[in-house]
Amino acid sequence: MERLTSPPRLMIVSDLDETMVDHHSDPENLSLLRFNSLWEDAYRHDSLLVFSTGRAPTMYKKLRKQRPLLTPDVIITSVGTEIAYGNSMVPDHNWIEILNNKWDRGIVEEETSKFPELTLQSETEQRPHKLSFHIDKSKVQAVSKQLSQRLEKRGLDIKIIFSGGNAFDVLPQGGGKGQALAYLLKKLKTEGKLPINTLACGDSGNDTELFTIPNIYGVLVSNAQEELLEWYAENAKDNPNIIHATERCAGGIIQAIGHFKLGPNLSPRDVSDFLECKVDNLNPGHEVVKFFLFYERWRRGEVENCETYTASLKASCHPAGVFVHPSGAERSLRDTIDELGKYYGDKKGKKFRVWTDQVLATDTTPGTWIVKLDKWEQTGDERKCCTTTVKFTSKEGEGFVWEHVQQIWSEETEIKDDSNWII
Ligand code: GLC
Ligand code: MG
């Protein structure tokens, strides 16, 4: 969050399972990829991305390996009981202090064990401020009532959350996704960085609290669970700031950005011909997002007007521009574009996707920009990432010129095989 010097234009606070990530009807992750390129293209540089998931950190990391998730600025895990910042997930210790109020994990463990209706979830999902069980839906009301009474008698102040038709979480009263968001907003305000707009996105019971935070927009994705829809019907149907989208998962988030007019809502993935799409554009990050989308389409064999495209690309590279391949080999940028020609359609019919993450541009000296990003490439189930640095120059009124591109294997890439890596 330090990189922002002024209030973020938009803060998206989104749940992951069945909200950002569609586990049921989008095996190619197309909605998520649409959201990703919209975010990197139009929001990354001046906005904040927050993921708020029920998963514990280990399970969150697992999901990141399985799906093309962007790197969030803030990650809230374990149903709002763990908050961490940035790439290296630095934990917020102040938050933990707050959660300790009237909480004793041992007592919760002891009292919950007296309910045969509760079956413990896996060990990975049991956290210092979250005990999670499975329960039959018909038992929720009675168990919640009795358990709350017993814990109250023992001096604790807890919160029970029912989600997804079968999950039962016990948390400190001060925890939960809503309280975590309220805490984050307060912290940002103290730093003079209260977001201009905040959009909360969710699909199930543990997301309900997100929609109760004042002065924010909210979207329930079309595929929201029964327990959240019931809450919506009773509490928020007449609130114009909270909508139930008609699109599933990340598609519903993009729909809400458009509905509430929070900023651009056309994903570059929905633009079929980049040559025709002349955006008034002061950010060279856009060039990079567009190029790597073009690159995906090129190798999938989905580009029309191939020659016009390559000619326009070559024209935007400096004649002496150099590309440094992750293997260390160097070649001219224009030769690299020619080389690309040989690979047209080589990934046709294959599960091949390219996406960019953390695209950030800095203008070092007037007329010169450095854009840094992670470029991901996935073929089948194997994926690789290069940290990429691009230097651009631009003269007044003219487009950006690619001067230099350098790639190095990212730490997250396990198989560092450069044989089929072009750019
Ligand atoms: C996630 C967590 C689980 C929790 C559920 C509902 O699925 O992994 O522990 O019970 O969210 O909050
Ligand atoms: Mg969910």
Give me the strand/helix succession. EHEHEEEHHEEHEEHEEHEHHHEEHEEEE
CATH fold-level name of the largest domain: Rossmann fold
Q: Report how far the terminal alpha carbons are from each other.
A: 30 Å
CATH hierarchy class name of the largest domain:
Alpha Beta
Which spans of ≥5 residues are poorly predicted at pLDDT below 50?
none
Determine the oligomeric state from the structure.
single chain
Mean pLDDT: 95
- How many DSSP E strands? 18
Pfam families: S6PP (PF05116), S6PP_C (PF08472)
EC number: 3.1.3.24
Pathway: Glycan biosynthesis; sucrose biosynthesis; sucrose from D-fructose 6-phosphate and UDP-alpha-D-glucose: step 2/2
Function: Catalyzes the final step of sucrose synthesis.
For the structure shown, list the relevant keywords.
423 residues; alpha/beta; Hypothetical Protein Ta0175, Chain: A, domain 2; Nuclear Transport Factor 2, Chain: A; 3 domains; 8-stranded mixed beta sheet; 18 strands; binds alpha-D-glucopyranose; binds magnesium ion
Descriptive notes:
- Homodimer.
- This is Sucrose-phosphatase.
- Its cofactor is Mg(2+).
- The protein is α/β, with parallel strands linked by helices.
- The protein has three domains: 10-91 and 176-269, HAD superfamily/HAD-like (Rossmann fold, 3-Layer(aba) Sandwich), CATH 3.40.50; 102-172, Hypothetical Protein Ta0175, Chain: A, domain 2; 271-409, Nuclear Transport Factor 2, Chain: A (Roll), CATH 3.10.450.
- It is 29% helix and 26% strand.
- The protein contains eleven helices and 18 strands.
- The chain has helices at residues 30-43, 57-66, 93-99, 105-112, 140-153, 177-190, 226-235, 249-259, 285-300, 306-315, 333-341, and strands spanning 10-14, 48-52, 74-77, 82-85, 90-91, 119-120, 131-134, 158-163, 167-172, 197-202, 217-220, 242-244, 317-324, 330-332, 352-363, 368-379, 382-394, 400-409.
- Strands 5-4-3-2-1-10-11-12 form an eight-stranded mixed beta sheet, with helices on both faces. The protein has a six-stranded mixed beta sheet with strand order 14-13-18-17-16-15.
- Helix 1 (30-43) packs parallel to helix 8 and helix 1 (30-43) runs antiparallel to helix 9 (285-300).
- The chain is elongated and about 75 Å long.
- It starts with 9 loop residues before the first strand and ends in a 14-residue tail after the last strand.
- The mean pLDDT is 95.
- Alpha-D-glucopyranose binds next to strand 9.
